[in-house]
Amino acid sequence: MRSRLSPYIAAVCSAGLVIAGVWALAQSEIERNRQQIRTDVLLQLSTRRARLESALNSRLFITRGLLAYVSNHPDVTPQQFERLAQVMISGQTGILNIQLAKDNIISHLYPLEGHERALGLNLLEYYTSQEIVRQSIESKSTLVAGPAPLVQGGTALVSRTPIFLNSPNSPGEGAYWGLVAIIIDPEVIFTDAKLLPINKAIATPPGRQPTLTQSRFNTPIPVEYAIRGQDGLGSEGAVFFGDPDLFNHNPVLLDVSLPNGSWEMAAIPLGGWPVSRPLGWLYSLGGFLAFSCGLSTFIWVRKPWEMQLAVERATFALQKSQERYAIAVAGANDGIWDWDLKTQEIYFSPRWKSAIGADPDEIGSNPDEWFSRIHPDDFERVEADIKAHLKGRSPHLQTEYRILHKNGSYLWMLVRGMAVRDTEGNPYRFAGSQTDITDRRRAQEALRVSQEKFSKAFRASPDAIAITTLAEGRYIEVNDRFLEMSGFEWAEVIGKNSTDLNIWVYESEQKACIEELQTSGRVIDREIHFRMKLGEIRVGLFCAESIVLEGVPCIVSITRDITERKEYEEKLYHTTSELQAIFKALPDLYFKLDNDCTILDYQAGKVSDLYRPPEQFLGRKINEVLPSDVSKTFTEALDEVKANRNLVYREYALTLNDRLKYFEARLLPLLENQTIVIVRDITSRKQAELMLYQAKESAEAANEAKSMFLANMSHELRTPLNAIVGYSEILEEEAEDIGIPDFIPDLKKIQFAGKHLLSLINDILDLSKIEAGKMDIYLETFEIAPVIEAAMATIHPLVQKNGNHLQVDYPPDLGQMYSDLNKVRQVLLNLLSNAAKFTENGTITLEVRRISHRGFPPEPPLDWIEFRVIDTGIGMTSDQIKQIFNAFTQADPSTTRKYGGTGLGLAIAQRFCQMIGGAIAVSSELGSGSTFTVRLPYRFHFPANLME
């Protein structure tokens, strides 16, 4: 019974095994179709994401030019901004407007029509923009907000970039200016990205479930999309495009990169994920296989070698496949890694290990073997990228990082990988490749540094630099110096050519530069004439060379403004010509010497002026052609010139044609090893100086004789005058005694005339002593108050004579003064008598003060006594004030006739003040009186030079 049922049991078992295999195959086909449809959706989503990023970035990029312009021109006017904005958005769709917000208040807006309500809006006070504006300023970066409601109505994407003014050492790091913003219509962006309109779903017949019939070679299945991440918040942000419920249906997800974050795009087939069912033929095949299983068993038993052959063929095919895989990996020069996420074991290929200098058996299968070698600065980023992929936030892993080599250096690696997931989407295996990109990164860094250097040189160059297209000559970029030289604004230049701007003055110069550029590929140092915006013509030194920028043939040109240099050269040429003509006309001798006193060149007005014939001068040393004393003078002067590199004067004498002549030589350094010598005949000057010296000696002798005569005559006159005054006083007393009063008036007149003449003689004597240097100083200590009272008593009669009133103002604690009492008293009397003489029916005031710590005159003692004589008399003009201290001079000849006097009083007073260390000053106004101020040291000290 058992043997009879064995074939049936075997047949049933075989059929069951076949059915189980067919069921497993069906499940595999379902999973394959599901992965295929997700792949198709991923491909379409990647395309839409690329289009979306391109559409968005192409519009965000246009604000860079405006940012650079405002950084260098913070006082941009609305007209300049309008021209710039008009050029920037020309040809661009979807840009609602461009804004400048100085100090965060919208101040410039283009186009203005329809957006008037936004002008003047404070972005830090508007609820939808407060936070994003603060973040943009703090991070100093571009932030994209929205879609957000606009104050003028509607919604839009808003990109805001902070503007920091440029400084000399750090461009773009200066003071904060404000914001530049671009307002973009999101509908246009979504249309450019082919997200609108959404395709309609393909209708499914009633009663039938949709099936997965699409493949990668068929027309892509219809897909619907949704986007979330408002304000760049990624998966945390709100949904602003598509059906929000789409994110709950296991969508394919990709991130859209923004300057300040990202959006998250989701996609599923239109109508949802279809339910996959196996085809009917698969079940038919399974039944057929189950039916024929018994027969196959007998065949396999009867022909075992056929089975063995099949196994060998399969093994060989597998071996070939592995060989092809190994060759492909080796050819790609990439390291392979395979990470079992369940067992936490990782396989590293030999190429992976050798790339970091490790031996095959030196690295184990622990993931720490990899992560412990990652550069500390890159570790967190790599870890975040791996976690993001494993959690399904990115379709694959691709990142660059640095890994430690065995020799201690770090290499740059590019890692690509993808996780294998189960039916629930959980990763259980993670594999990929690692490529050494160190050379590429170094090249990129070198390129970045080169571009940075070029950019700095381009902006900071003192020469005008422009980049134009080769085909039409249109300006692509110009630096600030170009704009400064030409007078144009940036927006007026970009997109135009030199013909549009009327820059070239002469067409022949332009053609010559073009021909040279076509012939040799460059133009070097060609002088051209160019016209500025306002019509001024300048001269430039022009250089140009052909380059290729992003596949477009271009020309980079450099122009240096040499207008001032050309003008200077022209002036120098004329000046040199004039100097040469003047030089040849001068009677001076000219020599050029080297450092060893060899005569290199000469120029003489007359050959007869030379000490020796010309042929005996050139190429010979000075000591070979001039007397020893003269050559020694020149040698010493030349050494001084070489040491100080400055002009040196020397005088010497030579006997020419039996006559002694005097010469003046001026030596001036010309080059490092040459000196110019200019020799002038000063014989006539020397003779004139001798005559002038003799005349000076004669004048001084005559002046001294005059002073001696005046001194002697004054003494001779003083004796009889004293007798006349004395006898007149005696006669006056006797006339009173004997009762002859009629004689008394005449005797008083004799006394007054004698005393007046005696005073004049005393003044002349004092002045002659001062001029002869024989006036002595007698120092003593005396009370100041009695001196003032005595002066008041002496001058009182003269004050009353003209009907004047005398006032005295001084503190009681003036104390004692150490000086020459007679000279102090005479100065006061001279000033008071002058005030009384030139004032009628007025007031004369004497003020005395003690002054401390005053700077008059230079280097004063600590304390001073100041006397001020103030009158209300006739006063003086400014011209009269200038000469009142000159001897024998009065303010006006008419005063001499009316008031009398010799004009010596003030001159003597000034000299007395100077002798005892003080000074005298005057201020006056014609008709309003005068004020004389005398400042004398409280304690007189002889000057240091006199003491020595």
From TrEMBL:
Any matching Pfam family: PAS_9
Catalytic reaction(s) noted: ATP + protein L-histidine = ADP + protein N-phospho-L-histidine
PAC domain mapped to chain residues: 397-449
The keyword Kinase belongs to this UniProt entry's keyword annotation: yes
Keywords: Kinase, Phosphoprotein, Transferase, Two-component regulatory system
Domain called PAS: residue spans: 321-393, 450-497
PROSITE patterns reported in the protein's UniProt record: CHASE, HIS_KIN, PAC, PAS
SMART domains per record: CHASE, HATPase_c, HisKA, PAC, PAS
Histidine kinase domain sequence ranges: 712-940
Lineage: superkingdom: Bacteria
E.C. no: 2.7.13.3
Keyword Flavoprotein among UniProt keywords: no
Domain named CHASE: residues: 105-266
NCBIfam families reported in the protein's UniProt record: sensory_box
Name the record gives this protein: histidine kinase
